């Protein structure tokens, strides 16, 4: 489902939520103190993101909320956080960002949550491996180039809600088992143990897009997620069932600036998982949890603006796009193999990036065409709506790093006036072989993507946005903690293929 970024006017228009309340973000520590009083807050929760992209947290009591918390920060053990420090350099600081404060809708105890920046206590500077710091540096670099003042992102995160999940692997066995009352495979199941007989209305494979209840059993859960997201200050545009069977969903946020949107992605995942759990279900942003059906992507709509002017619009350009927009696309496509190390950063990501499941494996641009990696949505001819949708990322990505990397690739394309190639406004999957072989594709594995990142990272290091330390640590972490561990383990399908050899 495409984001409606820009279709309702300037991105600077006031954001009024449905109902009787308007979300007003705090601006400083004094505003946070006001929130504590207004909502009878009892606990303050400090959240930050590890290098792979999961939220970590600890909670403090109200007497600990004072000016020093926002200025000097509060200490924690960085050696226990994935991708951070070694044990001999473990002392780190968290500095809460008061503009991120929200009354936490996932907590029963009145709790105020704040997203924090990570600080090196020795250097008294932002920590190089803090993903949020990377995102902030990317936005600063954009302004330094003079190309634009603002980059807007509007990601479409897809995810599954299952009834339960079981998985395990040891020296003598390995398995996973997904339970979903919506799953097509349950059409013949005796569901007496699940509270009644089998009531039918299962989602057929690849037919989960837009059916109404009772086929769509997750309408009320998604609505609850949406309301809780709005309570947390995240503006939502639309929610719906997605293509796959067994509970695939999409909830679309209204676009925001790069770092703010990455913050919103973290809130989004947090609330989806917690609301699902309250209903006795489980939400996952794993890209490809089901065989033979559509996977979950994170199509990223993005545009560059000078104040209230969309720089990607040109009334006389192809698909109403400017030269700058097309050069930005050129940068995305040129650097796509390296980008995938951050945008599709798991071994499971490459189970999604295969032809035949609306997967954007072809490095081409197009208008309206979902088989191309870079698409120009054509829902509106409004100048504010002109943007590029980069379809390769998936929701396993660390949004701070993925958004920053895409912006840096696009800026490199603009600086070098990179030609994205002729538009391919056809179904690229059906191209004759002699034409298809001329279309570059995304890497076929995380291994290939990391190798591409090793050789193509100069564009990321401009302005010191991605330091060598971040890139090297990312590559090493992914290889040793993920790729190598997968290589060591036999796959269940290998038994089917090879046991009788």
UniProtKB/TrEMBL annotation:
<dbReference type="GO" id="GO:0006542">
    <property type="term" value="P:glutamine biosynthetic process"/>
</dbReference>
<keyword id="KW-0460">Magnesium</keyword>
<feature type="binding site">
    <location>
        <position position="389"/>
    </location>
    <ligand>
        <name>Mg(2+)</name>
    </ligand>
</feature>
<feature type="binding site">
    <location>
        <position position="250"/>
    </location>
    <ligand>
        <name>Mg(2+)</name>
    </ligand>
</feature>
<feature type="binding site">
    <location>
        <begin position="294"/>
        <end position="295"/>
    </location>
    <ligand>
        <name>L-glutamate</name>
    </ligand>
</feature>
<dbReference type="Pfam" id="PF00120">
    <property type="entry name" value="Gln-synt_C"/>
</dbReference>
<protein>
    <recommendedName>
        <fullName>Glutamine synthetase</fullName>
        <ecNumber>6.3.1.2</ecNumber>
    </recommendedName>
</protein>
<feature type="binding site">
    <location>
        <position position="370"/>
    </location>
    <ligand>
        <name>ATP</name>
    </ligand>
</feature>
<dbReference type="GO" id="GO:0046872">
    <property type="term" value="F:metal ion binding"/>
</dbReference>
<dbReference type="InterPro" id="IPR004809">
    <property type="entry name" value="Gln_synth_I"/>
</dbReference>
<dbReference type="GO" id="GO:0004356">
    <property type="term" value="F:glutamine synthetase activity"/>
</dbReference>
<feature type="modified residue" description="O-AMP-tyrosine">
    <location>
        <position position="429"/>
    </location>
</feature>
<keyword id="KW-0067">ATP-binding</keyword>
<dbReference type="InterPro" id="IPR008146">
    <property type="entry name" value="Gln_synth_cat_dom"/>
</dbReference>
<dbReference type="GO" id="GO:0016020">
    <property type="term" value="C:membrane"/>
</dbReference>
<dbReference type="Pfam" id="PF03951">
    <property type="entry name" value="Gln-synt_N"/>
</dbReference>
<keyword id="KW-0547">Nucleotide-binding</keyword>
<feature type="binding site">
    <location>
        <position position="299"/>
    </location>
    <ligand>
        <name>Mg(2+)</name>
    </ligand>
</feature>
<feature type="region of interest" description="Disordered">
    <location>
        <begin position="1"/>
        <end position="24"/>
    </location>
</feature>
<feature type="binding site">
    <location>
        <position position="352"/>
    </location>
    <ligand>
        <name>L-glutamate</name>
    </ligand>
</feature>
<feature type="binding site">
    <location>
        <position position="242"/>
    </location>
    <ligand>
        <name>Mg(2+)</name>
    </ligand>
</feature>
<dbReference type="GO" id="GO:0019740">
    <property type="term" value="P:nitrogen utilization"/>
</dbReference>
<keyword id="KW-0597">Phosphoprotein</keyword>
<feature type="binding site">
    <location>
        <position position="358"/>
    </location>
    <ligand>
        <name>L-glutamate</name>
    </ligand>
</feature>
<keyword id="KW-0479">Metal-binding</keyword>
<feature type="binding site">
    <location>
        <position position="156"/>
    </location>
    <ligand>
        <name>Mg(2+)</name>
    </ligand>
</feature>
<feature type="binding site">
    <location>
        <position position="391"/>
    </location>
    <ligand>
        <name>L-glutamate</name>
    </ligand>
</feature>
<dbReference type="GO" id="GO:0005524">
    <property type="term" value="F:ATP binding"/>
</dbReference>
<feature type="compositionally biased region" description="Polar residues">
    <location>
        <begin position="1"/>
        <end position="10"/>
    </location>
</feature>
<comment type="similarity">
    <text>Belongs to the glutamine synthetase family.</text>
</comment>
<dbReference type="GO" id="GO:0005737">
    <property type="term" value="C:cytoplasm"/>
</dbReference>
<dbReference type="InterPro" id="IPR027302">
    <property type="entry name" value="Gln_synth_N_conserv_site"/>
</dbReference>
<dbReference type="InterPro" id="IPR014746">
    <property type="entry name" value="Gln_synth/guanido_kin_cat_dom"/>
</dbReference>
<dbReference type="InterPro" id="IPR008147">
    <property type="entry name" value="Gln_synt_N"/>
</dbReference>
<keyword id="KW-0436">Ligase</keyword>
<feature type="domain" description="GS catalytic">
    <location>
        <begin position="131"/>
        <end position="501"/>
    </location>
</feature>
<feature type="binding site">
    <location>
        <position position="158"/>
    </location>
    <ligand>
        <name>Mg(2+)</name>
    </ligand>
</feature>
<dbReference type="InterPro" id="IPR036651">
    <property type="entry name" value="Gln_synt_N_sf"/>
</dbReference>
<feature type="binding site">
    <location>
        <position position="370"/>
    </location>
    <ligand>
        <name>L-glutamate</name>
    </ligand>
</feature>
<feature type="domain" description="GS beta-grasp">
    <location>
        <begin position="39"/>
        <end position="123"/>
    </location>
</feature>
<feature type="binding site">
    <location>
        <begin position="301"/>
        <end position="303"/>
    </location>
    <ligand>
        <name>ATP</name>
    </ligand>
</feature>
<dbReference type="InterPro" id="IPR027303">
    <property type="entry name" value="Gln_synth_gly_rich_site"/>
</dbReference>
């Amino acid at each position: 489902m495409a984001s409606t970024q820009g279709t309702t006017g300037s991105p600077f228009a006031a954001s009024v939520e449905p109902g009787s309340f308007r979300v007003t973000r705090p601006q400083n520590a004094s505003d946070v103190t006001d929130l504590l009083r207004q909502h009878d807050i009892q606990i303050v929760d400090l959240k930050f993101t590890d290098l792979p992209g999961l939220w970590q947290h600890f909670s403090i009591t109200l007497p600990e909320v004072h000016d020093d918390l926002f200025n000097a920060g509060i200490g924690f053990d960085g050696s226990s956080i994935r991708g951070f420090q070694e044990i001999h350099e473990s002392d780190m600081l968290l500095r809460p960002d008061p503009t991120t404060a929200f009354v936490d809708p996932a907590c029963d105890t009145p709790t105020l949550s704040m997203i924090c920046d990570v600080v090196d206590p020795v250097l008294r500077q932002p920590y190089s491996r803090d993903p949020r710091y990377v995102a902030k540096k990317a936005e600063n670099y954009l302004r330094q180039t003079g190309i634009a003042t603002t980059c807007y992102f509007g990601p479409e995160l897809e995810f599954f809600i299952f009834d339960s999940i079981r998985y395990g692997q040891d020296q003598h066995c390995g398995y996973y088992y997904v339970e979903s009352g919506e799953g097509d495979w349950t059409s013949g199941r005796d569901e007496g143990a699940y509270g009644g007989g089998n009531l039918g209305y299962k989602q057929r494979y690849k037919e989960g897009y837009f059916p109404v209840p009772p086929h769509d059993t997750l309408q009320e859960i998604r609505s609850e997620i949406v309301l809780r997201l709005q309570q947390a200050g995240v503006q939502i545009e639309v929610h719906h069932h997605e293509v796959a069977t067994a509970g695939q969903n999409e909830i679309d946020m209204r676009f925001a600036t790069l770092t703010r949107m990455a913050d919103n992605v973290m809130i989004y995942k947090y609330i989806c998982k917690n609301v699902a759990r309250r209903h006795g279900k489980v939400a996952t942003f794993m890209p490809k949890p089901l065989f033979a059906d559509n996977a979950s992507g994170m199509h990223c709509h993005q545009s560059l603006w000078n104040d209230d002017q969309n720089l990607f619009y040109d009334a006389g350009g192809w698909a109403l796009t400017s030269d700058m927009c097309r050069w930005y696309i050129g940068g995305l496509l040129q650097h796509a193999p390296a980008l995938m190390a951050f945008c599709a950063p798991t071994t499971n990501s490459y189970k999604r990036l295969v032809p035949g499941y609306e997967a954007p494996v072809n490095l081409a641009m197009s208008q309206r065409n979902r088989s191309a990696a870079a698409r120009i949505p054509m829902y509106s001819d409004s100048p504010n709506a002109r943007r590029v949708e980069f379809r390769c990322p998936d929701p396993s990505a660390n949004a701070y790093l993925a958004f920053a990397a895409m912006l840096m690739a696009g800026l490199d394309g603009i600086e070098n006036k990179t030609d994205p190639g002729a538009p391919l406004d056809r179904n690229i999957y059906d191209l004759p072989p002699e034409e298809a072989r001329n279309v570059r594709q995304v890497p076929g594995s995380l291994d290939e993507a990391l190798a591409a990142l090793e050789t193509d990272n100069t564009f990321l290091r401009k302005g010191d946005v991605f330091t060598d330390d971040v890139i090297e640590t990312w590559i090493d972490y992914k290889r040793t903690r993920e790729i190598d561990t997968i290589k060591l383990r036999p796959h269940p399908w290998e038994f089917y293929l090879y046991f009788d050899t």
